[in-house]
Specification:
The complex is a heterodimer of chains A (447) and B (70). By secondary structure, chain A is an alpha+beta fold. Chain A has 15 helices and 20 strands. Chain A folds into three domains: 100 residues, 3-Layer(aba) Sandwich (Rossmann fold); 70 residues, 2-Layer Sandwich (Dna Ligase, domain 1), CATH 3.30.1490; 238 residues, ATP-grasp fold, B domain (D-amino Acid Aminotransferase, Chain A, domain 1), CATH 3.30.470. Helices cover 34% and strands 26% of the residues of chain A. In chain A, α4 packs antiparallel against α5, α7 packs across α8 and α12 runs antiparallel to α13. The radius of gyration of chain A is 21 Å and the shape is globular. Chain B is mainly beta. The radius of gyration of chain B is 11 Å and the shape is globular. Classes of the chains: A alpha+beta (447), B mainly beta (70). At the A-B interface, loops of A face loops of B.
């Protein structure tokens, strides 16, 4: 077993990884920037090391500083969390070259899935459905226009090396495409260091449904159910649930089988997520992308399966079998995750600030993965996620009831928060009915 | 004289308008970045940028002066 791990991340996910590491007897080392010295994860780790200033490029994205911190503290493994360097194959290779254990998939798998064009082509060959799209990178607007004509409007324009919805835009016609292409290209260069663009047919009225996979040390790939992530603003998730209320048993079976094939096609080890767009009415789905890391919304899967996914990541990284029987995985009840962001609940604009009051809900079925507590300052340097409010119920109705109570009981003062948005979401007939798609938030917040 | 102020704590990512520039209502003066989101700060009327109070890389607090338009 691993004896120690450096958690190369911050906030709620660093705290969550530290919690499982310590429970397993693995010494947990946190790293922090100038902005994060007072956050709970720093205090809760067995040891913590300062790695640089607030700017991510000089701290959480500084591979050399992270590896030096592992050396200094004697950590023998690195867990990247999500975001930052979690899907950076170069960093994974540097970790291994330094003689440390990388708690994640093989760097080659990260690389093959990180290029969205390569990934689409690979999935198509593996028999996973993909939507019509470009098979080669698009680098100029004339090619984009020609490709869009071939694919058929509306099209989605994305950075081939991208993620997190950044720079993504839909276009209904050529004028829209030209604008979306320029935006995507500038963001792609700025955020991902590559101007390569991918076009694919935009599926309207789709649900965003993803499958949690786990590649075991012995080579088997398991699918641990799906998560519905259709509640999105700016192409970024705000709330997730499992099971998806829009996926039939037959569609679920086909999606889980395809996700296993996707993992097998790249020899996947560890926790990963196969994201798809599903058309519930037609009972069909297409592959979107694969995230080669722990997913933000992994707790909903943990709540229904009882499996600690971070524990499995550590076991797999150490070459050991999982803590559960792969032949006896079952999902019990219904789980929801509400992302509590430091943003206003109407326009969703950032609202960092110092937390003067922080009081978490508790009770049956309630789990809060929080990155902050009272007295902390939420700075503009990182993403706006304050906490993940997760609830589990015997069925969807009970989970929704518990979520409503928990949202009402969660008190945060100082930064802006989207708690009022979540109250509106949980009261909306469309969300409550379960018949909703990725357009839900724009209906709840028109204009 | 119109004063344009920051609505939130943010980093100044790009300064788009320069002192002496004529701007119209809705023109972008600077682009702030906060929590991985770009937030354009727009002129709320026509005029000439008399003072640009921020530079790229600055951190602004809520209410800080960004530009003065005369």
């Amino acid at each position: 077993m691993l004896d120690s791990v450096l958690v190369a991340n911050r906030g709620e996910i660093a705290r969550r990884v530290v919690r499982t590491a310590r429970r397993m007897g693995i010494r947990a080392v946190a790293v922090y920037s100038d902005a994060d010295a007072d956050l709970p994860y720093v205090r809760e780790a067995d040891e913590a090391m300062h790695i640089g200033p607030a700017q991510p490029a000089r701290s959480y994205l500084d591979a050399a500083a992270l590896i030096a911190a592992a050396r200094t503290t004697g950590a023998s493994a690195v867990h990247p969390g999500y975001g930052f360097l979690a899907e950076n194959a170069g960093f994974a290779r540097q970790v291994a070259a330094a003689g440390l254990t990388w708690v994640g998939p093989d760097p080659d798998a990260i690389e093959r899935m990180g290029d969205k064009i390569q990934a689409r082509n690979l999935m198509e060959r593996a028999g996973v459905p993909v939507s019509p799209g470009t098979r080669e990178p698009v680098t100029d607007v004339a090619t984009a226009v020609a490709e869009a004509e071939r694919i058929g409007y509306p099209v989605m324009v994305k950075a081939a090396a991208g993620g997190g919805g950044i720079g993504m835009g839909a276009a209904a016609d050529e004028a829209g495409l030209r604008a979306a292409f320029e935006t995507a290209r500038s963001r792609a260069e700025r955020f991902f260091g590559s101007p390569q663009i991918l076009l694919e047919r935009f599926v309207e009225q789709a649900r965003h449904v993803e499958v949690q996979i786990l590649g075991l040390a012995d080579g088997r790939v398991l699918a641990l159910g799906e998560r519905d992530c259709s509640v999105q603003r700016r192409h970024q998730k705000v709330a997730e649930e499992t099971p998806s209320p829009g996926v039939s048993a037959g569609l679920r079976e086909r999606m889980l089988a395809a996700a296993v094939r996707a993992g097998e096609a790249v020899g996947y080890r560890g926790a990963g997520t196969v994201e798809c767009l599903a058309d519930a009415g037609a009972g069909s789905f297409v592959f979107l992308e694969m995230n080669t890391r722990l997913q933000v919304e992994h707790p909903v899967t943990e709540l229904v399966t009882g499996i600690d996914l971070v524990e499995q990541q550590f076991l797999i990284a150490a070459g050991e079998p999982p803590s559960f029987d792969p032949a006896a995985v079952s999902a019990v009840g219904h789980a929801l995750e509400l992302r509590i962001y430091a943003e206003d609940p109407v326009r969703f604009l950032p609202g960092p600030g110092t937390i003067t009051e922080w009081s978490e809900p508790a009770g049956a079925g309630v789990r809060v993965d929080a990155g902050y507590q009272a007295g902390n300052t939420v700075t503009p340097f990182y993403d706006p996620l304050l906490a993940k409010l997760c609830v589990h119920g015997a069925d969807r109705r009970q989970a929704l009831d518990r979520a409503r109570d928990a949202v009402a009981a969660f008190r945060i003062a100082g930064p802006k928060t989207n708690l009022l948005f979540h109250a509106d979401l949980l009261a909306s007939p469309e969300f409550v009915s379960g018949v909703y798609d990725t357009s839900l938030v724009s209906k709840l917040r028109p204009g | 004289m119109a004063e344009v102020r920051a609505e939130m704590v943010a980093n100044v990512w790009k300064v788009v308008a320069a002192e002496g520039d004529h701007v119209d209502d809705g023109d972008t003066l600077v682009i702030l970045e906060s929590m991985k989101m770009e937030i354009p700060v727009l002129a709320e009327g026509a005029g000439v940028v008399t003072t640009m109070h921020v530079a790229e890389g600055d951190v602004v607090q809520e209410g800080d002066l960004i530009a003065t338009i005369g």
